[in-house]
Amino acid sequence: MKIDPQNPADLSAQIAQAIRDAIVSGRLIVDERLPSESELADQFQVSRPTVREALKRLAAQSLIRTQRGATGGAFVNRLSFEDAYSQQITTSTLLLSMNAVNFDTACEARYALERACAVLSAQRRTADQLATMRAEIFRQAQPGLTDEAFCASDVAFHRALVDGAGNPVLSYQLAGAVEAMQPLMNMITFTARSREEIIALHSSIADALEAREAALVDTALVKLEAYTRQLARDVAARRRKTG
User: 98-149 pLDDT, tens per residue?
Assistant: First the structure.
């Protein structure tokens, strides 16, 4: 593992990248203990605080874990899809909040990904996942439910649909789409949306999943996407009039 001292990039970032590349390539394997801070400092010819900062970067990405004690140190982490969910959500949220993508682009991606789950979810959804969706539909219909609670229920409904596909890679890829994009879409459109319309579409999805009719799930998701996009256009038009 090497770094370029002449590179303008932060030295700790270079060290973190070098170790990350070694992990990804398999030169450093799961549960392997990394050299000590002193050894890494000598290897990269930098100070121990610089090494420490690099290790913090890797720990923040869940690539390594640290243990205290005589047998402690930094170890290559055994990363799971569940561990990576929060990072995916955080990254997607930042991209959206910084306006790195517009609403239509986010909406297109979010529903294209979810529709990819429709066939698998219709085949594999469990009774518990279907029950979760039904429970969220019931919750959404309750009088006095706040917009925040409705949004949380909306996310839980779609998360159950995605997880029904029984594919952790799809669930991971959709973590950002559902748990970052969906709240943003709700935040933008909540002033114009009809809860009754959304509940009806959610019910159509749940009914189709119960009947294991993938085509009907897809049709309902297409309708939900069209409705969401129209809501966003309506909100934008109102803002232009009042702006």
Answer: 666 777 888 888 888 889 889 999 999 999 999 999 999 999 999 999 988 9
pLDDT tens-digit readout, 191-227: 778 899 999 999 999 999 999 999 999 999 999 999 9
Residue labelled with tokens 């420490």: 52
Strands (E) across the chain are located at: 64-67, 73-76
Which pTM was predicted?
Answer: 0.69
Q: In 119-241, which ranges are E strands?
A: none
160-189 pLDDT per residue, tens: 999 999 998 888 777 777 776 676 677 677
81-242 folds as Four Helix Bundle (Hemerythrin (Met), subunit A) (1.20.120)
The tokens 């119960």 sit on which residue? Answer: 210
DSSP 29: -
Q: Using CA atoms, how far apart are residues 54 and 205, in angstroms rounded to an integer?
A: 46
Per DSSP, what are the bridge partners of residue 65?
75
Sequence spans of domains, the chain: 11-76, 81-242
Domain 11-76: CATH architecture, name and number where available: Orthogonal Bundle (1.10)
Q: What six digits make up the tokens of 30?
A: 């799961």
151: number of Cβ within 10 Å: 18
Identity at 134, one-letter amino acid code: R
